[in-house]
Design brief:
The chain contains three helices and twelve strands; from the N terminus they run H-E-E-E-H-E-E-E-E-E-E-E-E-E-H. It is mainly beta. It has a single domain, classed as Thrombin, subunit H (Beta Barrel), CATH 2.40.10. A six-stranded antiparallel barrel has the order 1-2-3-6-5-4. It has a six-stranded antiparallel beta barrel with strand order 7-8-9-12-11-10. The longest helix has 13 residues. It is globular, with a radius of gyration of 21 Å. The N and C termini lie far apart (43 Å).
């Protein structure tokens, strides 16, 4: 198992899909980090990001800028490089150029997956982006195989721990493929993973722990319900309280379905990068820098 090396290879292609507009009350400070709507990952060097359809629907419903009318949907791309003995981290906000959602789906035989797979593509206003390969090899999805997923569960909350920006990388979660359906076959119609997923992680890539190739995408978490009976004498009341509970079982869309949809998009001639700036050309020449603290300045306990 070489999971750390795999994660290092995967994470440059993972993006946070955000809103550039955030509701605030008068006199309250601006958010430390833009609200994260969901996760996505580059599948094409022309700036194409795969994510869930329900994430794109949220992006499309975001408010527009009150003065310019521009859409507030964007993506944060995280940049990382080694410099000397340290690491330089940065983030770049890139505007969304277009969306494509899967509107219809037909299978050549009986289909046991979602009637309409929860899949969409987002075109960012950039090209020469990193891209993860989509593994469409038969037999890759095997029950019990070790997997990992990386994204932004709980949105920007985990980026702004302790009331400040504490980290700029997606969260790594590890688990196994817990089932494939309808049964173990060359190209299953869907699968589940045993790995905790929270809101914000929708659209995260699923990959084998020892290979940086996408085998699927997180689409939903299965929920359970806890119920409790409530009763009181004054005032007289009786009823049942139901509380939804997250489980460790999450649904995932197989990568071969994503690859088929991407190929259809390509054949329709809808993917272009004409006039798009390269990702690195968007990096400011004098970016704001955050220096690590000088630990020598801290008083040692006596």
């Amino acid at each position: 198992m070489i999971l750390p090396d795999t994660f290092v290879a995967v994470r440059p292609a993972i993006v946070a899909l955000i809103s550039k507009a955030a509701p605030t009350q008068p006199g309250t400070p601006a958010p430390l980090f833009p609200p994260i709507i969901g996760t996505g990952f580059f599948v094409d060097r022309r700036g194409i990001v795969a994510t869930n359809r329900h994430v794109v629907q949220c992006l499309e419903g975001l408010p527009k800028h009150p003065a310019t009318g521009k859409a507030s949907a964007a993506a944060v791309v995280f940049l990382e490089r080694q410099e000397g003995n340290g690491t330089v981290m940065g983030c770049l906000v890139v505007d969304v150029e277009n969306y494509w959602t899967l509107e219809n789906f037909e299978a050549s035989s009986r289909w046991y997956g979602e009637g309409l797979p929860d899949l969409a593509f987002v075109k960012l206003r950039a090209t020469a982006t990193p891209a993860l390969p989509l593994d469409d090899r038969p037999g890759t999805l095997r029950v019990g195989a070790g997997i990992a997923t990386a994204g932004f569960p709980m949105g920007s909350d985990l980026i702004t721990l302790h009331g400040k920006i504490t980290q700029l990388t997606p969260m790594l979660r590890k688990g196994i493929i817990s089932s494939v359906f309808p049964f173990q076959s060359a190209l299953p119609h869907g699968f589940t993973i045993d790995a905790m997923v929270q809101p914000g992680a929708s659209g995260s890539p699923v990959f084998l722990e020892d290979e940086p190739r996408v085998i699927g995408m997180v689409s939903a978490v299965l929920r359970d319900t806890a119920t409790a009976a409530l009763a009181s004498e004054e005032p007289r009341f009786c009823g049942t309280l139901s509380i939804p509970l997250s489980t460790n079982i999450s649904l995932a869309l197989p990568s071969h379905v994503i690859a088929w949809a991407l190929k259809d998009l390509e054949m329709a001639g809808r993917i272009t990068d004409e006039g798009m700036p390269t990702l690195l050309s968007l990096v400011p020449s004098n970016p704001q820098q955050h220096q690590e603290p000088s630990w020598e300045r801290f008083a040692r306990p006596g």
